[in-house]
Amino acid sequence: MGFVIASVGHAAAVAFEEALTPHGLHPRHFAVLKGLRGGEAQSQQQLAAALGIPASRLVGLLDLLVERGLVERQDSPTDRRVKLVRLVEAGRTALDELIAVAGQSERRVTAGLTAEDKAELRRLLGVVHANVAAEAGGTRTRVW
Amino acid sequence: MGFVIASVGHAAAVAFEEALTPHGLHPRHFAVLKGLRGGEAQSQQQLAAALGIPASRLVGLLDLLVERGLVERQDSPTDRRVKLVRLVEAGRTALDELIAVAGQSERRVTAGLTAEDKAELRRLLGVVHANVAAEAGGTRTRVW
DNA sequence: TATTGTTATACTCTATAACTATA
DNA sequence: TATAGTTATAGAGTATAACAATA
């Protein structure tokens, strides 16, 4: 059972990754964009901490998003070491599109399931999630 | 939902991996041992193909299992290029233990679920699995 | 020539450790 | 001294290509 969940989960992740490929992005970038969704500019340190990744790893992800014109880095007016990062208008549009892509991928993944099925699946996975979370203790369980 | 499945699946995989750690093995080795469960000696090529991994990758996995005295390589009597691989008695014992470990991990993961819950979860995951399998086309979806 | 097991090479991904510029 | 962003370094993991022995 654990293997089945892991296998299906992996396949679902791959499916989403492939759905993002035409957009030239990876789920990681999607996660970064979602982290900026609020709209308030934040430092890279803050964002990295919120995403649970090293700041050094965020650099490259932001580089691509900036290059694509989805995100902008601006110097902090109060601390010249800090760069404030935020979504630009095109980034907000792109994020909306990517959310739609995620929704489509979601519908393909859950095709053939009734609303009750989905609710039940969510409930059952919730139980399993609680079990494995308790098991893992403080272990990081980021997927991307 | 796809994210939830992926996340839970990843956590379940990590949990199993950790359950195997005290035994000094990785899920990959468990998979290799299971591939040899039948008892018939097979060539490394056959085994690698059955596991869906490159033969070059199997070498290191077998090296460790041989070093542990769980598996033996013997020269083929009919083809001197071939090495026939099979479980040794200690390997069979170890495999039984590891299967028990997997069962314990399984029970922890599914704690709090009734038999009906488990059956339902299996059914729902089966549907999702069929969906993502169809999606993936020929894409490999090995987990380990 | 082709195939078996093996080793070497190259590539990806990642975390940690430097590094610079500020504070 | 300490912190921000960045870059460099090093390690794990893996697939592919090369290799020697044999068919």
Question: Can you describe what's shown?
Answer:
The structure is a homodimer of 144-residue chains. Chain A has 6 helices and 3 strands. Chain A has helices at residues 2-20, 27-35, 44-51, 55-67, 89-109, 115-136; strands spanning 42-43, 71-75, 83-87. Chain A has a 3-stranded antiparallel beta sheet with strand order 1-3-2. The model of chain A has no long low-confidence stretch (mean pLDDT 93). Chain A binds a DNA duplex (23 and 23 nucleotides) through helix 4.
- Write down how many β-strands of chain A occur, each being a DSSP E stretch of 2 or more residues: 3
% residues in beta strands of chain A: 5-15%
Shape annotation of chain A: globular
Count of individual helical segments of chain A: 6
Distance between the termini of chain A: 22 Å
Oligomer: homodimer
How confident is the prediction overall: mean pLDDT of chain A?
Answer: 93
Helix content of chain A: 55-70%
As laid out across the biggest beta sheet of chain A, the strand order is 1-3-2
Stretches of chain A where pLDDT is under 50 for at least 5 consecutive residues are none
Major beta-sheet overview of chain A: 3 strands, antiparallel
Largest interface (CB within 8 Å) is between: A-B, 45 and 45 residues
Give the topology string of chain A: H per helix, E per strand.
HHEHHEEHH
Structural class of chain A: mainly alpha
CA-based gyration radius of chain A: 18 Å
